[in-house]
Design brief:
- The protein is mainly alpha-helical.
- It folds into two domains: 410 residues, no CATH class; 196 residues, SGNH hydrolase (Rossmann fold, 3-Layer(aba) Sandwich), CATH 3.40.50.1110.
- The protein is 58% helix and 5% strand.
- The strands form three sheets. A five-stranded parallel β-sheet has the order 6-5-7-8-9. It has a two-stranded antiparallel ribbon with strand order 1-2. Strands 3-4 form a two-stranded antiparallel ribbon.
- Helix 4 packs across helix 11.
- The longest helix has 30 residues.
- The N and C termini lie far apart (74 Å).
Length: 680
Amino acid sequence: MGDNAARMIGLHESTRAAAARPDTTRVPYLPGLDGLRALAVVAVMIYHANHEWLGGGFLGVEVFFVISGYLITLLLVGEHERTGRIRLSQFWLRRFRRLLPALFVMLSGLAVYMALFHRRPQGQTRGDFLGGIFYGSNWYQIVVGQGYTAAEAYAPLRHLWSLAVEEQFYLIWPIVMLFVLRRGAQHLPRIGLWLFGVSVTIAVVTGVFFAGGDIATTCAPGRMHGYWTIAGRCISINESLYLSTFTRAGGLMLGAAFAMVWRPAAIMRSRLRDRARRVDLLAGAGVAILALLMWKLWLTGPGHDLGIRFDPWLFRGGFFATGIATVLIIAAASHQRAATGTLLGNPLFVWIGTRSYGMYLYHWPIYQIIRKQAGTALSLGQFLLAIAITLPITELSYRYIETPIRKGKLAEIYGRSRVMMRVDRENRRNLTVIIGAVALLVGTAAISFASADNVCVGDVACSLVTPEAATTTAAPSSTTVPAPSESPAGSTTDGSAPTTTAQVTTTSVNLDALPPIAVGESVMKGAEGALVAAGFAVDSAESRQGPDMATELANLRANNQLGRTVVIQIGTNGTVDDSTFDAMMASLPPELTPTVVFMTVYADQAWVDGNNERIRALAQRYPQNVTIADWAAIAPTVELCPDGAHITCHGAAPIRAYADMIFDAIGHPELKPATTTPAT
């Protein structure tokens, strides 16, 4: 009884204290923060369209993190001071009503689109859908190696990683705040200082673990720099630092720390209410810092010799500096007498900011539908088309999905509809038909996804260390070679390329009866339809590296799938040295494969010229059966994709040029098909 009485007295006193100072417990609407959201989402959308336009635009996500940490903490502190507790169930319900409806609409719409028009990547994107539904996209992408920088794959849900980080924060942070607030409001400034220290610690740890220098796009023995091996899987270190909830919590903690010392209503009751001009100057500095960081920082670029390299300044202080700049802007945007709030809170910025969640949610899938694969830059025309599609969808979602559900008016609207339907039975039947059709489409799409073939996902998952994994994870969607007649034999046990001809054997197979086979990367994949129509077998894979090619050729030889003619293209994705080419040729002796055509490569990458020099030298090193098809000489004469490498963006002409070059190289022009269409 005594404990209960004391608890009731304490609750009564806290409630009475809150009633005495209501202005300090409420969180006012801050249009300036919506304006800041607008700037952040526009920066992200520009970056996603074309990295060249704004190399550090992805930092807009860090701005969102800081704003979320600030506002969520502010709301929790205010609720505790008003009521003496935090109602976790109500908090989570509000978050779910805010976030889930639009997410599920986007996922459903995308699933229906893919089931109807783009079924091929269903097996690869199934995990992305599950990760999106359960807000675990960031961890899923880390595990499969399909991170934020991975190119070539059709990845319509890659952007959900940041929403997963925020939702995980929403799940955990209120529980943490329960314990924090039990210590009393007088301890909040000290706790804020501790949280600032946590943010600094995260920045330091991120900088320590960052892997600098050239990093291969896929891991394999001899090129493990930049990778951890965990439970037999290769995990990209820098991708993990970029995507993981722990390392990206720095911005959230920075925003939370600031909320404990800078509460808008309380500021107006202190001497700081007269410091608006100084606060505006700080905001100006914050905007300048953000602009500089977004202009100067970058995420990845080509390596000097191999693969890619990440910006060291980004991981060694760039994220933290972005957070500090954002805090400076928040300080002014939340100060009711500062001009920053008025400037950022203009009607256009507020309109964008209030719809920033929908814009972020819908823009990326629309980008992917237009460009077909990640890593391909949009042209200005494509970008304007994407925006013209994104904005109406965002507005419809905001008006008819997000706002009614967030405000709890969906039941009211449904109730009115039921009354109207009683009056007009025909409308009721029409509504029933529409709802039934939507449910049928979504259900059919779900079944289509569930029944899709399992395929490997991500650069890392498709190039694991063991050859067993490499052969079982090869994507069926990109391989049209005949099914193996027997188990692979002769692979190396460490996943490296074979180096001897001991594995080159054939048993009870007529090599003359096998079709010519083209083995290559994603560039070749673009011409798969034309090659198959001409009688080729095709084994193409995205992000394939030299050692992967050597292993694949050894496996194909062991499975009696290499005939008399083999066309190879390798070298677009990283350096291929002479020893790796020798390993490839070990599977292609002239007595078994008298015609081997190596294609040069064409891309704006540092290693391409060196690779082409080694490829052209193969004709002198292996004169008995090697000839060269110089794609690097032909590619500049055709219209390539905006990435300057792929051939699928401008109709049939680039694909026809690529396929014709292969037909001419093997000396069989009669194989040229009458018509050539892009592979789907």
